[in-house]
Amino acid sequence: MSLQEILNHRRAVRHFDSVKPIDETTVKKCIELASLAPTSSNLQLWEAYHVTDKQVLEQLVPACLDQKTARSAQQIVVFVTRQDRYKQHAKAVLAFEEGNVRRNSPAERQDKRIKDKAMYYGKLIPFTYSRCLGLWGLVRKGLAQCIGLFRPMTRQMSEGDVRVSVHKSCALVAQTFMLAMSEAGYDTCPLEGFDSWRVKKALKLPYNTEINMVITCGIRVPSGVWGERFRLPFEETYHKV
Ligand SMILES: Cc1cc2nc3c(=O)[nH]c(=O)nc-3n(C[C@H](O)[C@H](O)[C@H](O)COP(=O)(O)O)c2cc1C
């Protein structure tokens, strides 16, 4: 399928076929492809929980408010944010980038580039992603507003802003997963209608993780797609500047 065909084929599917199985390895491969999605500062503060176990799937049904798409799902993938892992991931990106610069940058620029990356991942990222009951974010935001008086400056620096940023990146991963599933001939439905506490309990997730999206998976039955697709007139959303 071309990208256009994939985009047209992907629909939110509310009822999956109960007999047609989907292949676990193919779903896993789609999650792997989803990891190619871009993330802010390449920090990859997300994880995917691929649920195939019958008992856990059953626990997820009430946690997803008993929606039919969850009841009929063959497998479920839960995308989770891991803002708490920013230090480890920044360290991993920096270690990779040092080698990347050595392998690919002109010799005379290497030291400066490595120094800049060490500053970014060693100092700026920990400064931006750390949390302390919202207070640390207020300090950052205040600082950003002051600097912003004199030069362009990223102003989304509160703890809430950074949390949104982490979820934004994770949602790109989730969307990439759904498109990969479409290409594989499988269907999905992204869910926001869930009880996050119960989903976390079913998956035994640590306290500081957040559920970004629950994605039900299977193969559609014809009635699984609720009729025609509605989109606002394109002119209402498109603005040429
Ligand atoms: C973040 C998000 C949360 C959603 N939550 C639900 C949900 O809880 N239950 C549901 O049936 N559909 C849910 N949907 C599916 C949307 O209703 C659906 O994508 C939209 O109506 C457009 O239909 P289409 O995906 O077939 O184009 C969600 C979609 C997104 C992106």
TrEMBL record:
Gene3D superfamilies: NADH Oxidase. Coiled coil: none annotated. The keyword Kinase does not apply. Residues 9-218 form the Nitroreductase domain. One of its GO terms (molecular function) is oxidoreductase activity. Keywords: Oxidoreductase. Belongs to the nitroreductase family. This is Nitroreductase domain-containing protein. It comes from Segatella maculosa OT 289.
